[in-house]
Amino acid sequence: MSQSALPALAEVIRSGFVEGRHRGSLVLLDADGTVAYALGTPEQPVYPRSAAKPFQALATLRAGLALRGEQLALAASSHSAEPFHRAAVRRMLADAGLTEAALRTPAELPLDQVEAEELLRSGGEPAPILMDCSGKHAGWLAACAANGWDLEGYLDPEHPIQRLARTALEEAVGESAAHTGTDGCGAPLLAVPLTGLARAYRALVLAEPGTEQRRVADAMRAHPEYVAGTRRADTWLMRAVPGALSKMGAEAVQVVALADGRALAFKIEDGAERARGPVLAAALRRLGVQDPVLERIAASPLHGGGQVVGEVRAAF
Hints:
The chain contains twelve helices and eleven strands. By secondary structure, it is α+β, with helices and mostly antiparallel strands. The strands form two sheets. Strands 1, 2, 3, 7, 8, 9, 10 and 11 form an eight-stranded antiparallel β-sheet that branches. Strands 4-6-5 form a three-stranded antiparallel β-sheet.
């Protein structure tokens, strides 16, 4: 299927008129792991972007780093750079005898618009610790320090921590990456199918208690504000739906697994963030989730003249 032929996952409705569509691919899994519903080409590789972070955090555990609780959740995060996120990143680095100067994340403003505006009002400026991947990088650096590995080149695809991260993702997905690129934070980026991603998250929540995989899932679900932030859909969902594991990725990638093994993954082809919430809420409803939080997640209003005149809504 050509990319132009991908189905519409969301429609842009302005004043009752369909102004545009956001196309993509989606897969839903039943509790037994079989495909319950699919649109587009979920068997084709995509860059999972930050949806790969649970497996990148798993690499830190496999490197022997005893992260737990908030720190392990932060190692799997795309955080909003709220004050508690920044403090936790600094603590993780300090525990390893490092400072934020060791981070190789690009200098950016917080992912969260409220935090970014507050930072600028107070005279702040972009910094590596504010980049949403700095928690993941701090975990990697701490693992490198504990093992005596090179700290300067920890983003090299052949570095020991990156080999562990590749293995963790490929094992979970069940196949080798189709392509290797570079993520926004500078880390290696592996292309894998959406169906494999959904099954990989399913395996995390169904892993035996105490295993490394289950430790990652449990830390994320127990501390979702460290995975995302106080104004983020991943946090809202994991707080509202018991046992849900949820992680976004850039360019409108989303993966969720429920406690019983039901799971979903999707990618909006044009990367439109405004379509993520409506598609996520509709996909969860198709999986049987019924919770008021879905209305909050789905809300994606369009404005005209200072008033709401339409919405982005799911098209399936």
